[in-house]
Amino acid sequence: MTVQPEEVVAEAKRSGSPVFRRILLKLSGESLMGDQEYGMDRATIDAIAEEIVDVQASGVETGIVVGAGNIYRGMSAAAEGMDRATADYSGMLATVLNSLALQDALEDRGADTRVLSALEVKEVAEPYIRRRAIRHLEKGRIVIFAAGTGNPFFTTDTAAALRALEINADAILMAKHGTAGVYGNDPRVDPDAEFLPELTHREAIERGLKVMDTTALSLCMDNNLPIYVFALADGNIRRVITGERIGTIISTPAKEER
Known about the structure:
Layout: H1 6-15, E1 22-27, H2 42-57, E2 61-66, H3 69-79, H4 84-108, E3 113-117, E4 126-127, H5 130-138, E5 142-146, H6 156-166, E6 171-176, E7 182-183, E8 195-196, E9 198-199, H7 201-206, H8 214-222, E10 227-231, H9 236-241, E11 248-250
Parallel strand pairs: 1-2, 1-6, 2-5, 3-4, 3-5, 6-10, 9-11
Antiparallel strand pairs: 7-8, 10-11
Helix pairs in contact: 2-4, 3-4, 6-8
């Protein structure tokens, strides 16, 4: 699992065909809020769903992990002082709500989808089983992985890295809300922050860059899984899967492979 060779990317650009066979798309919960302070904005979810359906229709097998920041932000006061494990389980359940909303928008556009949950909620989602997930992808279904890893103390970033590796995805695509990629500092605080178009997993860890948590980055580094970080804007997911260089690419060159 490495960054696609330049000749493959060049051919994809000419033909408009995808450079990936299978991807794991990581969406933050905040990306579903639109202009709201928290919660879900249906128009925003519809726009995201439209693009995901377009990507899947191009032949790319698509798995999705959604965060819960849009819901958990509204719960932050209630969660103050809550036991960490309990708070994490609450966050996992919030990702199920987001997954169901995204599933509904996708199916409104004719997509065949499945929500697979790491926590048992059998009335609304299938239990996560690796082989079942892969089979759904092979059948052309969009698979949404809900409830994180099913364990407290792990983020949805780690869940995205884990699920991407389990389904043998070619890359993780991180569509970020409000940022164009990875910067040396927080661009909201430092307007002169340096934009980083490329870096290695190790550099991201050592510099403490807020791309993914350290556990997730380490998983990707150890398994040479590239991460594409870009703004969640109209057409950007499609641009990435056809090889266009936007945002930041995080990868481990062959000489650093273990």
